[in-house]
Write a structure and sequence with these properties.
Blueprint lengths: L43 E5 L5 E5 L17 H58 L5 E5 L2 E5 L5
Antiparallel strand pairs: 1-2, 3-4
């Protein structure tokens, strides 16, 4: 793999260690203060907390949400009963459809068997009656290629 004249001394590499450079803190410029004159000066309220501290601030009127149309109260039990009834009706309908399908399949198979019996019986009847249908009512005897017909046997 290596040529013979190349020495097999492991290569030594210089290792450099990188130290993280700290970033200077970002200089935050204070936002400019713009004086705003409100149309009406809100009232200042002071509250004394149970531990004796006093908190002073502006009173904020709570936001009132718009009234929602009152919904009729429906009990959870009524909803469960209604859903149970719908499920029961779905199961009953499925069973009725399954029963109807089985009955229709049974009637169809019965009709096929009856049709096969009628066709096979008709074929047998044709075989029986066609063998005797074109013959006359006498006895035919072949003697030396001559045909003699006798209607009665005399003994």
């Amino acid at each position: 793999m290596y040529p013979d004249h190349t020495p097999h001394v492991p290569a030594q590499r210089a290792v450099e260690v990188h130290q993280p450079t700290p970033l200077p803190p970002a200089a935050v410029a204070p936002a400019p203060v713009v004086p705003v004159h409100p149309n009406a000066v809100p009232a200042v309220a002071s509250i004394v907390l149970p531990d004796g501290r006093v908190v002073t601030g502006y009173a904020i009127n709570p936001a009132h949400p718009e009234p929602v149309a009152a919904k009729p109260a429906v009990s959870r039990a009524a909803v469960n009963v209604a859903l149970g009834g719908v499920g029961f009706l779905a199961v009953c309908g499925g069973l009725i459809l399954l029963t109807s399908f089985i009955a229709a399949l049974t009637a169809f198979m019965t009709q096929l068997i009856t049709l096969a019996a009628v066709i096979f019986g008709g074929w047998i009847a044709v075989q029986i009656f066609s063998a005797n249908g074109h013959r006359e009512s006498g006895t035919t005897v072949n003697i030396r290629k001559a045909v003699f017909k006798r209607s009665h046997f005399r003994g």
